[in-house]
Amino acid sequence: MIEIFIEDLNQKFSYPEGITLKEILQNLNGKFKDVVGGKFEGEIVDIHTPIRKSGSLKFLTKKDPESLEILRHSLAHIMAQALKEIYGDKNVHLGVGPTTENGFYYDVEIEGVRLTDEDLPKIEEKMKDIIKNGYTIERYELPREEAVKFFEEKREIYKIDIIKHNIPEGEPISLYEQGNFVDLCRGPHLPSTDKAGSFKLVSVSGAYWRGKETNPMLQRIYGVAFWTEKDLKDYLNMLEEAKKRDHRKIGKELELFMIDEEVGGGLAIWLPKGAIIRKEIEDAWKEEHLKRGYQLVYTPHVGKEHLWQTSGHLSFYQENMYPRMQIEEEGYYVKPMNCPFHVEIYKSKQRSYKELPIRLAELGTVYRYERSGALHGLMRVRGFTQDDAHIICREDQVEDEIKEVLNFALETLKSYGFEEFEIYLSTRPEKSVGDDRMWEVATQSLRKAIESTGLDYKVDEGGGAFYGPKIDVKIKDAIGRMWQCSTIQFDFNLPERFDMYYIGEDNQRHRPYMVHRAIFGSIERFIGVLIEHYTGFLPVWLSPVQVKIIPIADKHLDFANKVKDILLQNKVRVEVDDRSERMNKKIRDAELQKVPFMLVIGDKEIENNSLSVREKGVGKTESMSIDNFVEKIRFLIKEKK
User: Fold this and answer.
1) Which of 24, 256, 388, 439 has a CA between 20 and 30 Å from the CA of residue 542?
2) pTM for the whole structure
3) What angle do CA 482, 488, 490 make, to 5 degrees?
4) What mean pLDDT do residues 278-296 have?
């Protein structure tokens, strides 16, 4: 017998080992309605899965956000069944069909068929038929040999591959059946197909089996799904808005950056206007760090093989690193992280307790191998600049340092217009390095820092890295999407590996605490988020061109250039549109380039020594003296409005 504590009843029950949620609900005589699954010991389970150990159980209904995992997993199977019915059971070979943040996908091979977006409505209709039919979903298990034989008969080569390479010997092999469709799966799934909610298939793309270019290319069909039609429509509207805000499209239109396949995928090239945005962000970053007692450093882009052996990167991270380079009998690697270099800076001389804390900061460009299918504009690249800092401190300094870092991160993100945050605390996993005391001190300092902000947070129990607990900060953009930005991560691994120490008051060696910290995460990704958040209409201080001067005719050019010189002297980025075009076209072009201010100059402006000012988003033209305009724009730039 096993003991199951049912949270919904605040009561413990004894059940036979292997009981299912469905049987538990039957034993409770209908006390709970509309249950679609449960959460057992933190893991989502469906009504079909046997429970084989004692633990805590919470029932899930459609009101629980976790229930979407069950819905979306079931819809992946419903889509796979639809493909089988449309294109023939023997012609469709199934790969994997996991859930995503807002939906699901399935990787499939269809003999003789290359799907396009035009095929999606037909697949949707078949899925709706399957849902309408209300097939009961059943789970059963097969011995390993029988499962292999079953899928061999169905010519499901990818399922056999999963059984042989992903399911350990002795682990149950579960299958789910609905109507005449059977699939290898761990679940969770709905009780029946007619319980499925609202969905839409959104795209088709290619995906290598297991993500390896040497394996067959499958077709990946994406869908989104929610319990209600309203939630689905809201999400689809958000997707449409996201298309308009796509930083790749805006970046090309505004000539901010480019990614050239001749140079290499995932390697961003900053064009002059984009370089201005980056410069402003980096200058502000450096200024704020110097104010807060950080020391700026610069480190090489490559390091000796021995450095990465000592750090552990070659043991644990090599698949994400670029290949070894041989130089004068020595091995070198392009750096995937800046941490080991900062450690070496710390170790360049003996440190006293009086010197701590030491805060080393760097805008360090790193290189990581990303699969080509994962690359996405500035959001997912192979070369990017981390706004790295490492804080090395004593135990009695940890709490204050963490509070300062978290406040620094939140203040910085707010200064760019972000006001809503999600904060996560990730705690010690089962396998970890570092002693119990260090973990306790570190975790409590992170917790106290979050609580001091008054913001809500979520705890990811056991979700920390093996080398230390961490805080993650996500920001919400203008259309409600969350983006991972700041990370505050303790590291107990590198201080041990590199034998970092300081001399304490007792004249003995002591191991310092080391905190790895990034506010933006990466400059590239953060700029991509900014572009999408503002739809390219960046704040004045970040705009590559802050003022466009539009002379109505050639006779107004001299006055236009005079105004330009005054603005340049006041450190305003300004251009004169001296093209032989109509004024309305010049205004329209400036609007398309997202220029914050346009100054239209004609006879009246010259006569009155004034400016006709058109401000982005205001919708009316204002007459203003040159001095007043200069004062206004300088204020906006200085205050980063």
Assistant:
1) 388
2) 0.83
3) 140
4) 97
